[in-house]
């Protein structure tokens, strides 16, 4: 889910059947997303090994998986995220194509570092800030890890309401940085200027936080948020009767989990939070994004049929070791029945590509996400809830999710529920044209002022 988690991969070992020396550092720039990629290649007993950096997302030293270098062509596969790259070796440069899902982007890998254009982000606040800022660390004893973040308070001394920001899916830093945007920095700045303190932190295994992100699920991340609450209670500047949670995307799944486990949560805000089970959400998301990308009705129908069957296998699964094998067998048979014209955008029929997609669909996080029904948690939430979605959101469609959130809360007796659909806003709450993820990086605005005001005004009403 989310913001298309575009660049947290695991690419792998390289097998070389050519004489060229491809060891060393290779640099590329995904221009449409303004994201740098760095591949480090070294020789091993079996050929080559490599690691990957995504500097703009704070990810370094990511181990690489199955990659082939044959006939002057480098092929990389990133199974966990369905990412692939194929580039031809010409004049000590790889010229090729990067793919993820339905996105197909030219990518050149060179020895020299590319010059990265600085995107215009007019909302990004600049120092000095008119409020107190402190870098902090706190412990999560349940996971035996230390987490690092930033606490902002209206003033250094006093007692203030404080919210914890909870990021969306994929490894996120404390600013939830994506495509040059820093949504959590913008939110933190706006709320703190309006007398609401904010704690935002790097996800486990990201930035200065310890631990390992890979293999963790939403339930694991909920323990990180619980530890953030415990930390806030130790701060004398925090009014412990006015602590709240603000979760974006997957964070909107985690916030209700935490609210049902801690009486310290007095209110929650769900920003593009989900109200329907994960597999159902992914089917909606797949159709909306596929149509925005120009897939034909035939391709959309075939994609839906394949995904419906695969998702059902995952949701009904018990033994993970059998799941991957069963999904791979089904996908191999069904995909190879399709003609080239019927093949959905981004789907390939070769063995490596099918395996990569199956690996992505059967990660612990994805299996948990597909099986999780937010309604079972929301119906236990008794504190005030604000849920807002953008009407142009193609990842968490507003109509279906806001209705489900409100129904789950109100039918269980929660009368303090506000749901709002904001016209023209996408999954990141930017003012958008289509809402398609490929617009995110091209839009200069990080968050629409309207969304910031709605959230701030509602929180201030709760903490009067």
Count the DSSP helices. 11
First-last Cα distance: 35 Å
SSE order? EEEEEEEEEEEEEHEHEHEHHHHHHEHEH
Strand elements, count: 18
Sheet/helix structural class: alpha/beta
Helix content range: 25-40%
Strand order of the largest sheet: 11-12-14-13-15-16-17-18
pLDDT below 50 for ≥5 consecutive residues: which ranges?
A: 1-18
Gross morphology is: globular
**Could you state the oligomeric state of the chains shown?**
single chain
Largest sheet: 8 strands, mixed
Can you walk through the features of this model?
The chain has an 8-stranded mixed beta sheet with strand order 11-12-14-13-15-16-17-18, sandwiched between helices. It has a 6-stranded mixed beta sheet with strand order 1-6-7-8-9-10, with helices on one face. A 4-stranded antiparallel beta sheet has the order 2-3-4-5, with no helix packed on it. The chain is built from 11 helices and 18 strands. The chain is α/β, with parallel strands linked by helices.
Features:
464 residues; alpha/beta; 8-stranded mixed sheet; 6-stranded mixed sheet; 11 helices; 18 strands; disordered N terminus
Question: Strands, helices and their partners?
Answer:
Blueprint: E1 14-16, E2 24-30, E3 35-44, E4 47-54, E5 59-63, E6 67-70, E7 73-78, E8 83-90, E9 93-100, E10 103-109, E11 132-140, E12 145-153, E13 160-166, H1 183-193, E14 197-201, H2 218-233, E15 238-248, H3 251-261, E16 267-271, H4 278-292, H5 297-315, H6 320-335, H7 351-361, H8 364-371, H9 375-378, E17 385-390, H10 398-410, E18 417-422, H11 449-462
Parallel strand pairs: 1-6, 13-14, 13-15, 15-16, 16-17, 17-18
Antiparallel strand pairs: 2-3, 3-4, 4-5, 6-7, 7-8, 8-9, 9-10, 11-12, 12-14
Helix pairs in contact: 2-3, 4-5, 4-8, 5-6, 6-7
């Amino acid at each position: 889910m989310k913001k298309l988690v575009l660049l947290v991969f695991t690419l792998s070992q390289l097998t070389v059947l050519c004489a060229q020396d491809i060891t060393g550092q290779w640099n590329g720039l995904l221009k449409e997303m303004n994201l740098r990629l760095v591949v480090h290649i070294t020789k091993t007993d079996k050929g080559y090994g490599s690691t990957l950096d995504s500097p703009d997302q704070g990810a370094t030293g990511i181990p690489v998986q199955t990659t082939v270098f044959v006939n002057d062509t480098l092929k990389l596969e990133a199974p966990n995220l369905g990412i692939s790259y194929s580039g031809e070796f010409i004049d000590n440069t790889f010229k090729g194509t990067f793919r993820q899902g339905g996105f197909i982007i030219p990518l050149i890998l060179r020895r020299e570092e590319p010059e990265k254009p600085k995107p215009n982000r007019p909302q990004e606040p600049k120092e000095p800030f008119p409020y107190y800022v402190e870098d902090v660390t706190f412990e999560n004893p349940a996971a035996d890890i230390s987490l690092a973040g930033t606490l902002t308070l209206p003033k250094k001394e006093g007692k203030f309401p404080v919210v914890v920001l909870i990021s969306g899916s994929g490894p996120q830093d404390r600013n939830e940085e994506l495509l040059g945007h820093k949504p959590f920095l913008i939110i933190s700045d706006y709320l703190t200027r309006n007398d609401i303190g904010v704690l935002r932190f790097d996800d486990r295994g990201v930035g200065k936080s310890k631990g390992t992100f890979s293999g963790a699920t939403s339930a694991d991340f909920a323990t990180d948020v619980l530890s953030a609450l415990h930390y806030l209670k130790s701060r004398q500047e925090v009014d412990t009767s006015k602590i709240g949670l603000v979760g974006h995307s997957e964070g909107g799944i985690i916030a209700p989990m935490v609210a049902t486990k801690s009486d310290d949560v007095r209110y929650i805000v769900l920003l593009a939070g989900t109200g329907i089970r994960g597999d159902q959400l992914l089917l909606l998301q797949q159709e909306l994004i596929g149509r925005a990308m120009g897939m034909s009705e035939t391709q959309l129908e075939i994609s839906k049929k394949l995904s419906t069957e695969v998702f059902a296998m995952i949701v009904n699964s018990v033994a993970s070791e059998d799941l991957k094998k069963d999904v791979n067998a089904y996908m191999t048979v069904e995909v190879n029945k399709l003609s080239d014209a019927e093949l959905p955008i981004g789907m390939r029929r070769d063995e490596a590509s099918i395996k990569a997609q199956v690996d992505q669909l059967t990660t612990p996080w994805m299996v948990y996400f597909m099986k999780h029904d937010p309604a079972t948690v929301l119906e236990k939430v008794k504190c005030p809830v604000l849920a807002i979605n953008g009407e142009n959101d193609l990842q968490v469609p507003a109509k279906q999710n806001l209705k489900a959130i409100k129904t789950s809360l109100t039918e269980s007796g929660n009368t303090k529920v506000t749901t709002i659909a904001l016209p023209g806003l996408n999954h990141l709450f930017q003012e958008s044209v289509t809402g398609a993820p490929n617009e995110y990086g091209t839009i200069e605005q990080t968050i629409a002022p309207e969304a910031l005001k709605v959230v701030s005004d509602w929180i201030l009403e709760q903490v009067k």
